[in-house]
Amino acid sequence: MFEQLPSTYYQSNAFTVQYDQDRSLGLSVWQGKMSSEDLKEAFLLCSHVMEKYKLTRWLAHDRNMKAFSEEDTQWIFENIVPSMLAGPLRRMAIIPSKDKEQVASVDFLIQRAGDLGDMEVKNFEEENEAMRWLMQEF
């Protein structure tokens, strides 16, 4: 189970995005395998919510997310990573997937991004640990 935030921006069986403007916090919850089109739309929604609400903290709850293709990984690197690095986000906590291929894809994206500037990214096994870290002062 995951923490419920006050506002839901988008919800489907495969993907949910919530946010809390007061805490400058966003949350994405991924469930299972998504088509390439749905995956791209979901990442665009996350990026949009980060920008629109000027969120500085994000919890990516990937526990049930399945691996995405090399083509999708490349698309995310070219279209999402630059906006995340240039945007307001300062901390991202990831609850890693049980799918080792998906974990490898995320690790690859982080390594390929290189210098993250002011942004920190950390993996956590437990959501409460992730939330404590996210909510620390900058």
TrEMBL record:
Source organism per UniProt: Rufibacter hautae
Designated name of the protein: STAS/SEC14 domain-containing protein
Q: Which InterPro entries match?
A: SpoIIAA-like (IPR021866), STAS_dom_sf (IPR036513)
Lineage of the species this protein comes from: Bacteria, Pseudomonadati, Bacteroidota, Cytophagia, Cytophagales
- Could you tell me which Pfam families the record lists for this protein? SpoIIAA-like (PF11964)
Q: Which domain of life is it from?
A: Bacteria
